Structures are given as structure tokens and as C-alpha cells.
Amino acid sequence: MTCLKSLKQSGTISPSSKYLIQKIVKDIDFKEGQTIVEFGTGNGCITEVLLNNMKSNSKLHSFELNTNFWRFSKEKFKNVKQLEIHNENAVNYDQIEALSRLDSIDYFVSSLPLTLLKNEDIDLLMSKVKNSLKEDGKFIQYQYSLDKFSYLKRQFDQVQRSYTMLNLPPAFVYCCMNFAG
Asked: CA geometry: angle at 181 spanning 142 and 32, to 5°?
């Protein structure tokens, strides 16, 4: 029963592979002073790669609802000053003072199992994300199906899709952007 509960919350049966993580971060142009928001810290495998590539004056805010994952990652990254891990629902990310300003976030990296979330929660989250993204910012989401591809295409001006078989299960990565103006 614990496995099913974990699957329903995390949406996966295993950590992201290095191949999936490479696909996720390839669309991030790591520069000085960036703000990156991660939805779904999990075991921290994506978090770690983000931190390893970020410039020293950038900040990563990671949100993890699962208390066990949150505790694990808090301990794993306890000495990393660039990272704040929040035991909060991703939908509430904008209640963190540093993330409450419009046009303030360079990248969102999401591991959220969108197919398991309520439509109204996804709509609210996407509305907030679009308002928070900087002009040239990106929302990067991975999923194990094409279920939300058409939804994301309706939400963003451009959605690039890639795929990796080298993950369990194989995964799609969506890189979503809006055009200026």
C-alpha cells in the first residue's frame, strides 16, 4: 500500500535517469543571478544537476509535498546555500516572498505527475507560472505520456517536445515558452 501511495504522489516507479535529466537541463541557459523553481524534489537527482550547473549567485527553490522526500533532500542538501526546499504544494509557490513578484523566475523545472492532478489545480498552477516567468523564461515539464501535450500547447506560445527511451519508464520532456509582447 505504501508503494501505491508513493506512486500516486510521485507519479513514478524509479528516480529519473541521467539521460532524462540531460534532456531536462539541455534547455536551460545557466547564467548569473537566475531564479529557478523546481516542482517535485523527489530524491534530489534533478536538483543536484541543477545545482551543479547554476552560477554561484543564482537561487533554486524546490517544492516537495511528500514529507519523506522533503526530509531526505533537506538532509542531503543541508549545506547548500543556493537552495531552499519547501514542504509545500507547488500550487502555493507564489506565497514564498522571494517568488511572489511577477516576471521574476527564469525557469520552472517540473516533475509533477500532471495526469494525476485535478484539472483546476493544473489550470491554477499554469496561470501562476505564466505570470511569474521572465520574458525569455521556460517551463520544463516531463511526463510519461502525451496526455498533457495538447493542454500545454494551449497554455504556451511554443512547446518543444523531446523523448528518451533511456528512463524507467520512458519519458517525454516538454519545454514551454511564451513570446514577448
From this structure: 60
